[in-house]
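One such shown below:

_____
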Amino acid sequence: MNQDFDIKIIDKALSIDNAYDFVLDSTCGGITLFVGTVRNHNKGETVTHLDFESYRPMAIKELTKIAASCQTQFETKKIAIYHREGLVSIKEKAVIIAVSTIHRKQAFLACEFIIDQLKLNVPIWKKEYLMDGSHWVNARP
């Protein structure tokens, strides 16, 4: 297991502080945090909450590959990727990505790369609950 990565898929509240503390490093001047929260609408419909499911072993493996690619491509120092499983309410955090690099530009690029690759390649599925029913949402960046 790579000591520069902290990757979690959990069914409880995600902590921005834990992600930040993990990536904080005295050699780095750039830290980016992306926090994806559940919004109350989508495509003109009212959303009441989301339900995330994953194939956890494969999801962890894919997230680790994405983090390793970032380490090579963007010279990241540390990466934290936390994703929720289960029911997630409006305004709750669904995903947190934290990245540290020597300079800020690489941190921004790495963080964007991670969320885009997560949505494309990681087996985490989202079910959207509306006022009048529910449906599975296709992954897309």
Notes: The first helix runs from residue 16 to 23. The mean pLDDT is 95.
